[in-house]
Amino acid sequence: MLILEEEKKKKHTVTFCIIENTLFGMGNPLLDISAVVDKDFLDKFGLKPNDQILAEDKHKALFEEIVKRNKVEYHAGGSTQNSVKIAQWMIQKPHKVATFFGCIGTDHFGEILKKKAEEAHVDAHYYEQNVEPTGTCAACITGDNRSLVANLAAANCYKKEKHLDLDSNWELVKKAKVYYIAGFFLTVSPESILKVAKHASDNNKIFCMNLSAPFISQFFKEPLMMIMPYVDILFGNETEAATFAKELGFETDDIAEIAKKTQNLPKENTKRQRVVVFTQGKDDTVATVGFLSALVQEHALEECIRAGHYAANVIIRRVGCTFPEKPDFH
């Protein structure tokens, strides 16, 4: 993991009381549906044993069929929702430290998702609409393999003017001190991201973003670079960093050099030096989730990284984005 910051801050003791809604996340909520299946099931829907794909028309019946299986597990999912969910788990109490916005459908899966977010003690405020069904991600498990099929559906339908702009919701945004949004949401509502990012910048709060996947830099470069001047902490893995560098014409594949050039991109809030966190190695991207829990508690950067490594180490050993009742992190 390569971290770049301008200068090491002096270590000092901070007495800090965490309150509700300190961490704000906004993104694509998905209901994770996990079940053990057989090879015939995979073959029926043209799935590989270990893969990640977006659902096509031929997969629609898959979601109906998988819920009829024995021992189906449901979890609140989606990149950003998972991140704030695990930050909440790391913090434990108070509950509802993390707020989450996203779009779901007015359907059975939507009700399950609301229940699962509540069980995770995340303060989820969903924009609910009846045009598209709640987004889902089916995890088809065969032995040690997982074939993931995601259907974004309602997650693509978030509307700034119908949800984020409402006074009661914007008050929750204003309560936060740390903001985290994955690059995936640039495909849905860049105008919503921009409004939140500007608020963070104008009020000297911390706005974090994740490059999420190489295709974000490739095909959504314009909205990404519209947000970049407001980004205080940028996360990404080495593949995403390399693609980002290529799209911006950095003319280097050295991760340290890419981080330095990224740090020096124009920035609105000059009171905060941009921090760049590029993870390297297997199962790296989940390190973000623990990092956020320490960041919310105003811990030093080194402690944020340690928390990130701990959370990642727990999660990669389990099926889906799940965790024990309590963390063993000190």
Automatic annotation (TrEMBL):
Required cofactor names: Mg(2+)
Enzyme Commission number, as recorded: 2.7.1.20
Pathway info: Purine metabolism; AMP biosynthesis via salvage pathway; AMP from adenosine: step 1/1
Signal as UniProt keyword: no
Pfam families, per the entry: PfkB
Enzyme class name: transferase
Principal location class: nucleus
One MF annotation (Gene Ontology) recorded for this entry: adenosine kinase activity
Annotated ranges, domain Carbohydrate kinase PfkB: 41-286
Biological processes, Gene Ontology terms: adenosine salvage; AMP salvage; purine nucleobase metabolic process
Reaction catalysed by this enzyme: adenosine + ATP = AMP + ADP + H(+)
Function (record text): ATP dependent phosphorylation of adenosine and other related nucleoside analogs to monophosphate derivatives.
Subunit structure: Monomer.
UniProt-recorded name of the protein: Adenosine kinase
Organism the protein comes from: Seriola lalandi dorsalis
